[in-house]
TrEMBL record:
Region of interest (Disordered), residue spans: 1-25, 39-84
Comp. bias (Basic and acidic residues): 68-84
Organism from which the protein derives: Paenibacillus urinalis
Protein name as it appears in the record: General stress protein
Pfam family, one: KGG
Superkingdom in the source lineage: Bacteria
PANTHER family: CONIDIATION-SPECIFIC PROTEIN 10 (EUROFUNG) (PTHR36569:SF5), PTHR36569
Bias kind Polar residues: ranges: 43-53
């Protein structure tokens, strides 16, 4: 934060501003707010993309997970899922 604004306050980075904004939003709204906007985002995404889009991102995520985890990881998440 080398630059300063009037009054010798340090200039905020974009990351700092985003973090502060996120914290203020989380104090202002409850869980149902985030559920509502998440649902709206999911609906909009599904309207704008085909099922191929979801297959592609699912495949990418699966490959990334497989490359960074071993068999014990899959055993553990399978066991946890079975308990539910």
């Amino acid at each position: 934060m080398a630059q300063t604004l009037k009054g010798n306050r340090p200039k905020m980075t974009r990351a700092e501003a985003g973090r502060l904004g996120g914290e203020a939003t989380s104090k202002k709204y409850d869980r149902s707010f985030y559920q509502k906007i998440g649902r709206k985002g999911g609906e909009t995404t599904s309207e704008n993309h085909s099922s191929d889009f979801y297959q592609e991102i699912g495949s990418k995520g699966g490959k990334a997970t497989a490359s960074s985890h071993d068999r014990s990881f899959y055993r553990e998440i399978g066991r946890k899922g079975g308990l539910r």
